[in-house]
TrEMBL record:
Pfam families: EAL, GGDEF. SUPFAM superfamilies: EAL domain-like, Nucleotide cyclase. The chain crosses the membrane at residues 13-32, 194-214. The keyword Transmembrane helix applies. It comes from the Bacteria. The keyword Transmembrane applies. GO terms for molecular function: cyclic-guanylate-specific phosphodiesterase activity. It comes from uncultured Sulfurovum sp. This is Diguanylate cyclase/phosphodiesterase (GGDEF & EAL domains) with PAS/PAC sensor(S). InterPro entries: Cyclic-di-GMP_PDE-like (IPR050706), EAL_dom (IPR001633), EAL_sf (IPR035919), GGDEF_dom (IPR000160), Nucleotide_cyclase (IPR029787), Rev_trsase/Diguanyl_cyclase (IPR043128). Keywords: Membrane, Transmembrane, Transmembrane helix. Residues 386-626 form the EAL domain.
Length: 626
């Protein structure tokens, strides 16, 4: 309901169109109620057209007989010879379709025959004429206009033409012509019905057209607008990129800091409510000519009109927005918290070639704001050297440039292939971009989750294409508590026996939630592996709190075991612990046979590394997967 109100409030023209159509429907309803009146009116109009020639002829004849004497009625009353001549002249008009033709004059309140051309049913001079519809006759005399009287109740007649005979601007008599042309009447009846129904059809078509126009516009409006905030969506920008005159705006790209943590902790539904609250805070600072576009998830594009503010006023405005968001208190359940936003701003939009260029530069400034501590505003410096913006990363992620290379994990005893680990790569022309070059820039942003989804979908497609292939994919602990990612895995659980999940630990792990997600995945048949154990943030809580099937020991330890006693002892201890707890061990970064032999002596079953094979694209793999 709120969205409909906003739609009509922003599109007044449609409100007036609907109002006009309602008036039209009232007119139609009134027309239908008085259909006989309107049908008769249409019939008379059609009769006038149909008897046009005869009407003109009768007018010419009348003109001749009236001009014979100074006073038409008295002269005909007094002179029988003149009456006979006039009756003969009028008789020339008669045809097979005319039953009778006569002239009446009014004396007092009664009509009398003056002339009559009918030979069979001749009415005598001065005989009283009984008028059945005196109102129509009186109107013809008063208005001095011809009138067609449709004879629906007289079997022998179809219609009667009444023509006033006027002298000195006064109606002195009436020419009455009774027609028996039933064929014409039938045709006109059909024509009137057709016109009536055509009018109704036209109104229905107009209604359908208006309904289609408004529903189409409304559908587009709902796609273009956030129903709760009435702000614009990214789809609006995509469809109207060429129409937006970006040069008349200052452009700011705002991002909610660390918002991924809110989604992971409280779920996307609660996260969306928080985003809506922040949007409502921001829009209170904007003017009518500004545009707020929900660019993606927790990112907002602000197009701020240059005509209504100076650059100094803009800087002050953005600081006020940032401070208002920072001071706002958000509440989900029993937890209260604060959030901040970072902004990247481009002032010199007038020298840019396209809206995409503008967004790229604002995004570069946003990147600087985040890397300089967040909760700050950074302005793009046109003297900065070109760099890889996050916006370009977005484009590469959403295009077909995202691929996976595959490195085999083999049985150390038999060298048989167990499965492949999928390793993310982005192909930028001839340049191959590795994850360590892009993931730090995407951390704590919606893009990281989007990238994870694309990697999962890429490998699901690969497994469906190749039924003999088994793959492990890397997910962070945050990914594992993301409902959207769990949903993708659940929907593709028929591949769980060939899709192994490797968990990468980040700075803060909620072990209870991660363990709950692991248990859900296990119900679907997935195997779980801890990746890079022994480095970074990993600790023994992995082994003590999580239900895992595989443990992958970090390569920085493995590559040292043949010449470092502490590394040797550490791997041996891990291997012994895993053997006692039914956990299979995978060693990575194996680069020679000596390391293989040591690992086999510890009971380590699986390994990967350049000693076996480097990571390669799918097309370069041994298709037999041996």
């Amino acid at each position: 309901m709120n969205n409909r109100f906003n739609f009509f409030n922003n599109n007044r023209i449609y409100f007036y169109v609907i109002l006009a159509y309602m008036v039209l429907l009232l007119v139609l309803s009134n027309t239908y109620k008085n259909i006989e009146v309107y049908e008769n009116y249409i019939k008379r109009a059609l009769f006038n057209e149909a008897i046009g020639l005869l009407d003109d002829t009768s007018s010419n004849v009348l003109s001749k007989i009236v001009k014979k004497n100074g006073k038409f009625v008295p002269s005909n009353i007094e002179n029988k010879i003149l009456r006979d001549e006039n009756e003969k002249t009028l008789g020339l008009i008669k045809s097979k379709d005319i039953k009778s033709l006569y002239v009446l004059y009014l004396s007092g309140e009664n009509y009398f025959f003056l002339l009559d051309t009918d030979n069979e049913e001749y009415s005598s001079f001065n005989e009283v004429f009984i008028v059945e519809n005196s109102k129509v006759f009186n109107q013809v005399i008063k208005n001095q206009r011809k009138r067609i009287l449709i004879q629906e109740d007289v079997a022998e007649l179809s219609f009667t033409l009444l023509k006033p005979i006027v002298e000195k601007n006064k109606t002195v008599a009436l020419l009455v012509i009774d027609y028996t042309e039933n064929r014409l009447t039938a045709v006109l009846d059909v024509s009137v019905k057709v016109l009536s129904y055509l009018l109704i059809l036209v109104l229905i078509l107009i209604f359908l057209l208006i309904f289609y126009m408004i529903s189409t516009r409304y559908a587009k409006y709902t796609v273009y607008h956030n129903s709760e905030t009435n702000t614009l969506t990214r789809m609006y920008m995509i469809d109207n990129q060429q129409k937006i005159n970006f040069k008349k705006y200052y452009v700011a790209l705002a991002d909610i800091d660390f918002f991924k943590r809110v989604n992971n902790r409280h779920g996307q539904k609660n996260g969306d409510k928080v985003i809506t609250e922040i949007i409502k805070i921001i829009v209170t600072f904007l003017k009518r000519d500004d545009k707020f576009i929900q660019y993606s998830g927790e990112e907002f594009l602000l197009l701020l009109d240059k005509d209504t503010r100076t650059e100094k006023e803009l800087r002050k405005l953005l600081e006020e927005i940032k401070l208002a968001v920072y001071r706002a208190n958000f509440e989900i359940g029993d937890e209260k918290f604060n959030l901040s936003i970072s902004m990247g701003v481009l002032l010199n939009t007038e020298i840019q070639k396209s809206l995409q260029d503008v967004i790229h530069k604002a995004d570069t400034a946003l990147y600087e704001a985040k890397h300089n501590g967040r909760n700050r505003i950074s302005y793009f410096d046109i003297s900065q050297p070109k760099r890889l913006y996050r916006e370009k990363l977005k484009e590469m992620i959403e295009s077909d440039k995202l691929v996976c290379y595959y490195q085999p994990i083999r049985d150390l005893e038999t060298s048989a292939l167990h499965h492949y680990e999928a390793l993310l790569r982005i192909e930028d022309g001839d340049n191959i971009i590795f994850p360590d070059k892009i993931l730090p820039d995407l951390e704590d942003s919606y893009l990281y989750t989007h990238l994870t989804k694309r990697v999962i979908e890429f490998n699901i497609d690969m497994l469906r294409k190749d039924s003999k292939m088994s793959i492990s994919i890397n997910l962070s602990a945050d990914d594992l508590v993301n409902d959207a990612i769990l949903s993708i895995l659940a929907q593709n659980s028929d591949l769980s026996d060939r899709l192994l999940v490797e968990i990468l630990e980040n700075k803060s792990v909620d072990y209870k939630r991660v363990e709950l997600s692991i248990q859900k995945l296990k119900l679907f048949g997935y195997k779980i592996c801890i990746d890079d154990f022994g480095s970074g943030h990993s600790n023994l809580n992995h082994l003590l709190k999580l239900s895992i099937d595989f443990l992958k020991i970090d390569g920085s330890i493995i590559k040292e075991i043949h010449h470092d006693k502490r590394a040797y002892s550490l791997v041996k201890t891990f291997a012994s612990f895993c053997e006692q707890n039914d956990i299979e061990v995978i060693a990575e970064f194996i680069d020679n046979q000596e390391v293989v032999d040591i690992l086999k002596s510890f009971g380590v079953k699986f390994g990967q590394g350049w000693y076996f094979s480097k990571a390669e694209p799918y097309e370069a793999l041994d298709k037999k997967h041996e």
